[in-house]
Amino acid sequence: MVLPSLLVTLLAGSGSAAAAVARPVTPRTSNGTCTTLLQRRAWHTFTDAEKRAYIDAELCLMAKPATLGLNGTKNRFEELQWTHQHQASIVHNVGAFLPYHRLLMWAHEKLLREECGYQGAQPYWDEVRDAGKFSTSDVLDPVTGFGGNGVGAYGCIADGPFVNFTNSLGPGYRIGFEHCIYRFVSDSVSRRAAQSYIDECYQHTTFVDFWPCAEGAPHNGGHGGIGGKMNDPIASPGDPIFYLHHSFLDKVWWDWQELNQSARLMDIGGRNKFSGGFSGGFPWGNGTLPGFPGGNGSLPGAPQDPWRSVPLQDMIPPPGSPEPEGDPGNTTTLSHILRMYGVVPDVTIADVMDTRGPLLCFEYV
Ligand SMILES: [Cu+2]
């Protein structure tokens, strides 16, 4: 019978509107349970020991050999990155942008916990706090953070826990080209992380209007403000800061959902494919690497990114262009399938709409 489960969904949607504190949660469906919500906190609230534990787990993931046979991957960390690189054309500029990245953050958190002994939750970077001054953020601390800005023409990071990490995916779609984590931190670009841009997005009352706004300044400010690897829309999950950044953006989305839960908990839409971007040839093609709009290199006076000159022909496009699945037509629906290529099981957008649902089971505090 369809009716009872529909009823449960509706009741759960409206009934949880006022909830905000840690509490046991009644499962919304029968195929999973969520009894204790993991609490995701901002990085700057972490103790040094908590920061250490998170970074150690990340290093563990980077050291664990790849297991899934995904083209070009060497370790578990890169397997997560691969799902993003491979699907870049269908998880950006589309309705699935926020849902896919929510699932990717959760998959990352799950791997840290289940395979690397991490006990905590995925942290997020409170970027509003550091807007306009990313260079002094504690996220970039060389001892307790992710290391600082890059140095030299190629911007390879020179300190911090990830200084020796070699990434095999990227720039762009390229695989098998081993390179450092590189950054071109720009305080001026990081102003796009300011609260005013988020407030602008919160003016929108429907998902179809909200997501392009969120994918604009709040999203691009973090990518462009760090620059380098982070400014590569295809391979950016090669810088571990990516996971703090996108968890922040996920919180921005969740906070918007919570502002009107009964209307927004299951609100989805937007196009499935974006013809002007990744799929039909790059607007930034002709031998230059992609950058987020407004990122480093595209602003007057911003440092030029020499990685952009890596010839396009050296970038290997994903074998077979992935196509959206689960919702025929060009409108993103709750049935849209989010593919994870074995890193975690594939799910639908419906499964990731509620962070407190049986699959995700976390909350932002
Ligand atoms: Cu992305």
From TrEMBL:
PROSITE patterns: TYROSINASE_2 (PS00498). SUPFAM superfamilies: Di-copper centre-containing domain. The keyword Signal applies. Keywords: Copper, Metal-binding, Signal. Residues 1-19 form the signal peptide. Residues 239-250 form the Tyrosinase copper-binding domain. Residues 289-332 are annotated as: Disordered. This is Tyrosinase copper-binding domain-containing protein. It comes from Remersonia thermophila.
